[in-house]
Every structure is written in C-alpha cells, then in structure tokens.
Design brief:
The chain has helices at residues 26-33, 35-38, 78-88, and strands at residues 2-8, 13-19, 49-51, 54-56, 67-70. With 89 residues, the chain is α+β, with helices and mostly antiparallel strands. The N and C termini lie far apart (51 Å).
Length: 89
C-alpha cells in the first residue's frame, strides 16, 4: 500500500512516499522511512503524530492513501501568544 509521510522543520521539509505492507502501523512507517536519521537534532520518537490532521497513536494501522504527519512541539502556547499580541496592541 502507498502512504505519505510528512515532517516540516523550521528550515526544511520532507514529504516521502512510502510503499508499505498491509497492516503497517504509523510508528513502523516512521521507522521504515528513515526520517529520524535526517532530523537527528529533533526527538521525533517523542513527537506527536497524526493522519490527515487527526492525532493518532503510533500503533494506528495505516490504510492505503493515508498521510502520516509528524508534528513539532509548540514553541509557545497559542493562548500565551495571543495574550502577548494583545498586550502589544
């Protein structure tokens, strides 16, 4: 089955098309992709993941056409960012 794996770092992005066996989990797809070696400076093993924008567990079994997304940790809480912008205004 074909799936996509996506990770966007501040300075670069990766979009990989993978051919995987049926029954492969999201976590196994990340390991098989080798993306963790490309972004060694970021702890991708602890990063949250999702499929098409919906957060999922790494044990989630993938389906044909899924897009696995690896999310970066937030730099600042969105509520805090809004509060800081409001103070400046």
């Amino acid at each position: 089955m074909k799936v996509e794996l996506v990770f966007v770092a501040p300075d670069r992005e990766e979009l990989l098309e993978l051919e995987l066996a049926a029954g492969t989990t999201a976590g196994a797809a990340i390991v098989e992709s080798g993306i963790e070696e490309r972004f060694a400076e970021i702890d991708l093993a602890a990063a949250p993941i999702g499929i098409w924008g919906k957060p999922v567990d790494r044990a989630e079994v993938l389906q044909e056409g899924d897009r696995v997304e690896i999310y970066r940790p937030l730099i600042i809480d969105p509520k805090e960012a809004r509060r800081l912008r409001a103070e400046k205004a």
